[in-house]
Amino acid sequence: MKSERITNHKKVFLLFLISLFTGYLSLLTDAHGLDIRRSVLSNGLTMLYVERHNLPIVMVSLLVKASLLDEPPDKAGLANLTAELLTEGTGKRKATNISEEIEFIGASLGATTSEDYTLISLSVLKKDVERGFEILSDVVLNPTFPDEEIRRNKELIKGSLKQSEEEPSFVASKAFRNAVYGDLSYGRLTRGSVETIDRITREEIVRFHSDLYRPNNAVLSVVGDLTEDELSALIKKFLSPWQRGNVIKRASVERPQNKKRTFLIDRELTQANIIVGHTGINRGNPDYYAVSVMNYILGGGGFSSRLMQTVRDEMGLAYDIHSFFAPYKEGGLFEVGVQTKNESASTVINEIYTQVNRIRKDKVSEQELDDAKAYLTGSFPRKLDTNRKIADFLVTTEFYDLGLDYVDKYPQYIRAVTADDVLRVAGKYLDTLDMVTVVVGKQSKISLDNQ
Amino acid sequence: MRGLRVQSALLAESQFVRQLTFLVYLLVMRRFGNLFLFLLTSVLIVMPGSLCADVKEYTLDNGLKLLISEDHKVPLATFQIWYRVGSRNEQSGMSGLSHFLEHVMFKGTPQYGSKEFSRIVQRNGGVDNAYTTNDHTTYFQTMASDRIGLSIDLESDRMTNLTMDPKETMAEKAVVMEERRLRTDDDPQSALFENTIATAMREHPYRRPVIGWMSDIAAIQRDDLYAYYKKYYAPNNAFIVIVGDVNADEIMKKIKAAFGQIKESEIQKSHISQEPQQDGEKRILLRREAELPYILMGYHTPSVPHEDSYALDVLSTVLSGGKSSRLYKSLVYEKKLALDVGADYSGMYLDPFFFFLWGTPAPGKDVSELEKMLYAEIDAIKVSPPSEQEVQKAKNQIEASFIFGQDSLYMQAMKIGKFEILGSWKLKDTYLDGIRKVTPEDVRRVAKKYFSEENRTVGILIPQKARSEQ
Hints:
Chain A is an alpha+beta fold. Chain A is 41% helix and 20% strand.
């Protein structure tokens, strides 16, 4: 239905790039006025582009399908370490030259590895865009992974892991993930552990990069003050030399079994840091939208959610309580998170069970349903209100196969959700019998009387 | 939806978040949000006049000022109301009053009952929140620009009609206490920050934390809050900032209709103690359960628009503006002495505040060695000015960050408001000029002037361990 939107004035662009691209599609979204142009380069790189001249800036996001899904459990942290090292030395630049050059032009360039992918982000002023693209290309295509930098980064990551141990929320989250997913990918930290990091060799990093950092395993988005001509010249110069590779298909994650378990971790704290939850859904699950509505009502809807109303407003037992589904490519998590003084931990956990059971058993009211749908549809434009947000949105939308028309489809998906759908997905994806509970706090003051 | 990716972001960015942990303390929000990290990093980020959309200024008869900037790139607008009241205005024994009142502002009026405010905004796809600082309390909503009339209705109502039901008000006290436990009591770096400030400041109210001391929060009564509300929440002690897809003249009329009849109140300027010069180093230790030591140093410095503020801003960028900056390059990269280090000139305050330096020693390294090396770095600048290249890089970074800040409507409004609090939103235009004029010698001069032993307060976190796991 959208094919007629391949507009005529884009043909110039198409012709200009015909030697570079194997496919081309443009789509003007209805509500957002976003003219998203999608193309695939002959080396397999998928590219998304939005031209916006409101500010003299250019935002670039490069998503590479390289994450903890691609590393063996005993080498956990490999994807993250590889990403960190991209900016720590190339064929023609030392680590210190890269940061000096980027910072001198007031730009930023960095790589972050999350559960499903590595995202390399460049923010650069229009006047320095050529330099920005050249450095981006250099760090992605030609990193040298010097031994000295590997050692240095390993120590920094190990140090940051140690430091994280003093954050109660980190301790709780780490224990929770490990309880739900075990050693399967999503049970591990992207940073890995001290033991696994020490095991990683330079050869493995080089191979990881060479296998996965390939144009046919990546998605690029460019948003900002660039014309088509300018962009195609940059792409031709800096990204067309990127060689296609033979990328091995990722193994899918085995679905872990939910099992009721409780983990108590003793710390000298005034509050208990609590996570209650289990496995969630993956991003491709068609129930994602009904789950979004359901979760909004339960604990995702800020001050309007049921958990916030009871635990914060009525009981005064927490500053923040929230629930969320973290949907990944190959799995997901559901969790309710809260901090309350040690003495109230048990009461709050009981209330979480009460609310989860309630939304599983009773249909939500029409008012709650309408409010949730109004928020989820009405707030969507805020997800696209800066160039940076648009750039990141484009690559992740492509990665999760949501379609180029997702900005128009999303409100339709949400509007279609009924109270019966909410009841059905609550029954299907929430499970009070097999919850994992993690409590980090002063255990001598915490006594759980839960079932 | 908001929470869907929260966890992965937390894990991936924990190191970055960590560096800012202690700064977070300065702002106390009603609810966590990524945006308040932005606020903190933006303390020194301002916009050049040439890039800044025009701000239209109006003042109603009752003294309420409106600052409106039209930006039509997306069909959204942000509405912010700023009250000139914060922990700076609190008396001893009543710390946390401004912040507590901010919570109570969401508890309803006769027209809109408790919790209705956020529900109405969210039903309209908007986001709303508020935060309190040392100098001001700000409430904001961001939503579709054609619904911004809602903000006008709701904010004009609660400026003067707050019910403050005694039972509901006192119930909120427990929430504020949980917030304090979360932010300060269970966060060793945050606790160190609070302790260090309370030591460095002897007389000025900045010595008291925005969230308040626990015993003060416990002591605050409904009538204290109500009197404070009546004293400070008035059109002549507030201003409104709107940035977005609006027509300034039209929206001004709507605001006038809603706020115009609210009576101004007589705001008597209470005396605020001024901090005398510090004549010798102060030093504190904090022993807490923690993994690594942490050091924080504060040097008293003047605030924007003091003539030294521009050079101090450049100095902080030379020291700590990215991986190529002096502190990171020397102490993290070359000497491998620290896991992280930083410098921050906190100049966006009404009264003089601090230039901070901090660091976490790398595992196995000594905190006293790190302290010594931090001094070595600042001593080097006191002796010989930074290179032209370094100063130019810092200026480029500051200028670029002004421009990137324009990407967000919310950030634009924040900057206008921040400068208005300091005297006038127009200061943002002169600020960049000030930055451009800074020379390497200016940087050396301010380093020498403020980085003295007598002017310094040092706080050190010493980890203690006592734990078991089941």
